[in-house]
Structure formats: C-alpha cells, structure tokens
Amino acid sequence: MRALTVDVQNSAGRILCCTIFRQGGRKLLAKGHILSDEDIRLLKTEGMQEVWVTELEEGEVGEDAAVMAVSEAMCCGSVEIRLAAGGRANLVATEDCCTLVDDELLKQINCTSSVVIATVANYRFARAGERIATIKSAPFAIARAQLETVLSILEERGAILQARPIREAGVAVLYTDPVDGERARTLFQPVVHTRLEKFGAHLRYSMTALEEDEPVTRSLQHLVRMKPAVIMVASTTAPAGPEDVVGRSMTRLGAHLERFLAPVEPGNLTMLSYKDDVPIVSAPCCFRSPKPNILDMILPPMLAKYRISGWEIACLGHGGLLN
Fold first, then answer.
1. Please, are residues 264 and 322 in contact by the beta-carbon 8 Å criterion?
2. Global pTM?
3. Class of domain 2-55
4. Among 22, 216, 284, 296, whose CB has the most other CB atoms within 10 angstroms?
C-alpha cells in the first residue's frame, strides 16, 4: 500500500487517505472512500485540484472487503451486516434475540489479525435493530495472507457470535410456600411480570403449590407437559440444595440435575435441572426484586431455546458480582 498526492482528475478508483470537508465544516467524503467519477465531479465543484490517496498493492485486500468477509464468517442467526465508513461493519439484530459469544475464539481473532471485533456480552438480550457487534479493519487495507488466516480459523472453529431469536417465549412459574402457595404468587408475581417483559417474554402458565414433595412434584409434572421455554420455581424459602423439597421434587420428577450453586450474587443458591429438554430453575431470593440477579443472565439464552450447561453456569463468576 502506498500513499501519494494526485490530481483530482486522475483519482478515480483510488482510496482517500483523509476525510474531506466542505468550507463550512460539513463532511464531503470520508477517509477510506473509493473515489468514483461522480466524486471527481463533486471535488471539482468544491474547487479542489489535488487529493491525497492510497493505492492497493499486490497481495492486499481493501478494508471494506476485509471486514465484510470477516463479518460473514463470524456470525449466524438473526443478524444483518451493515457496512459503515472507515473499514467498519456493524452487525445488527433483525429480531429480538439472545447473543451467544465464543469468548476464546474472539480473543484469538483479536490477537492475531489486522481486523478487530467488538461484541456485546455473552447471553445478552438484544432488541431488533440493536447493534450487537462491530468489525474494524486496519486503515485502508490488510495483507491477503492475514485475512485468509482469519477466515481459515473461523471456518474451522465456527461462528464467534450467534444471534438466537426469541420467538413465542412462553414461561411457566410455580409459586411455592410452606404454608400457602398463593402467598408466594402474591409476593412474587409483579416482579416476575416485570422481568419477563424486559426480555420480550410472557407468562403462559402459572401454578401454586404447598411446598411439600407431593404437591410440588405433581405441579412440575403438569407444567412440563405444557412444554414452556422455561419453568421457574419461585419459593418463599431459601433451600439448602437438592436435598430440600424443590430438589427432591425435581428428582422424583425424573429431571437431570445440571447444576447447584452459581458464582453469581444475587443468585448463588440457583439450582438448574432439565426434564425432556425443559429447563427448571430454582433461584431462591431472586423473585423479590427486579434488581439484577442471575435470572437476568440465564433467562435470555433459555428463552432462545439454548441449553445452558453446568459448566457454563460455573463460568459466570467473572462479572457475577451484580450488586
């Protein structure tokens, strides 16, 4: 890549090295813009005689082509690529979704290339139209060999970012209390509705149960048959773990205990099980307040029908201190 000053008349097809402004300070053409015949006429009208440009050399790829190639290889799902000025591409959600980010792959790409990628956080809920990633190239051009290395890594490892759509996200809630299940519903239902609305979900089924083995197990059996995106158990107690009523009921149900204890505060007593691919979440003390807690971290992927593993729950410690 070499930079030079040329007559405006001879600048077609070359790349601007700097942004050009009108006399009043308004931007005329952006840095990195490939000059066209129409641009030349515009520059002449503005009284410009010379421009500072750069030319690609053999073995180089223009910044726009580079970021578009990386963008297409690094993402999948409900996302649209929008090319922006200056060797930049923005990824925008096309519908409400949850973003899944491969952090290790993202670090590898950002450490090894002339293209860098910034994304929103893993498990982030994104509204339609929201920007969820930006890809930026080194100015003007990068070596073709570097671009091919990046694309080869992405082809082998897969997407860095998935935008998993959240559609028909019906949630079931079981309210439990040692004395009267309706008491739990009265205490928690407004907060539950507030949290679900934040993620574009809705409460499809709700039940109450006395917090004893048989009533809780029977209620969970009924809710599992409804096939909701997730079942939340909102208990007025703070159980010690799988040995307490809710945990024993999950076992009686035949659910697989995926994880007990989470490195998140509030939410460290979270218990996650799966029955017929339906996640069942008990998160003691997380239904009393709309303030951030573990439910805000794990609900979006569950609503997007992504199966969170116990390992992934264990990895939430970095950033897990929410308040």
1. yes
2. 0.84
3. alpha beta
4. 216
